[in-house]
Amino acid sequence: MYPVGYKTEWINSDHSAKFHSEICDGAVIPGGSSYGDTPVFRVTRWLTAKAFEKDFPDDEPRREAAAKKASEDPLICDSPNSSLAAWCKMVVKSNSFHTMNGEETEPGARKVTSAGTADRFCLDDIDVIQTIEASTWVDDVCPMYQYCEQRGSWAAEGLRRAKYTLAAARELLNVMKDASKAQTEAKAAREKVLREARNAPKTIDKIERALAVLDDDIAAIDARLMECGSDVAAAQEIQVEKDAKTEKQALYYAEWERLEEVMMQAEEIAEEA
Questions:
Q1: Which residues, listed in sequence order, are joined to residue 21 by a DSSP beta bridge?
Q2: Where exactly are the structural domains of the chain?
Q3: Most buried of the four, 3, 170, 222, 267, by CB within 10 Å?
Q4: 10 close to 48: Cβ distance less than 8 angstroms
Q5: pLDDT, tens digit, for every residue of 218-264?
């Protein structure tokens, strides 16, 4: 049983972001597509003025204005599977951003902030469960609900939920490690593209000159083939030489095309920045 409308609020350790956790009705989830007749776990991140201290170190009004503007498009993560799955998504997205020379390039919703290492829905908190079970509507909306004392004892329930909390923290840490590795690899790949794109014009110029030489070589070989006349053995020997030249020519053209694609990728990376 998941109580639709249930909400929690959590502020991260450096007070740069406020997180709202909410259980929504999947059929009418605000601002999102329908998930059908199932509860949806939603986590929303709102940036605070603290998140903009590096941008405006001596200007509190501008920090407040930046936070207000960012709140128009907060970072939202949904999951119809579990509260932990929603927080895993938030941990990844809240800690992910594009960089250029080590600096953040995307403002607002893509600003990096810590999201902690815990499931902040707090459905593993005994106080929360006791409050829910004390509600008069439980039997009405979920007549098959099994109360904690029917399942065992509050002590056993507390131990079970403590184990879940530990498992959730481990899962979130693993997600953060995987995301960090992926981000590092993506950054390295972008840097490789940009580096290769910078050298591409010179390389293409060399390829053009090499192709011009090959064109002359192939033209000369064609002339020699014409001179062979009916000498099949001589023609075959010269044809082997021509095949080697045309194969090399094809490799040059393939590399030229690849470098053109690299330069296009570099332009897209520059536009994202």
A1: 8, 43
A2: 7-189, 191-272
A3: 3
A4: no
A5: 999 999 988 888 888 888 999 999 999 999 999 999 999 999 999 99
Calculate helix-pair angle for 154-228, 126-133, nearest 10 degrees. Answer: 110
Contacts of 116 (CB under 8 A, 6+ apart): 10, 12, 13, 91, 172
Instruction: Give me the residue label for tokens 């080590």.
Output: 102
Question: Both tokens of residue 181?
Answer: 């590795």
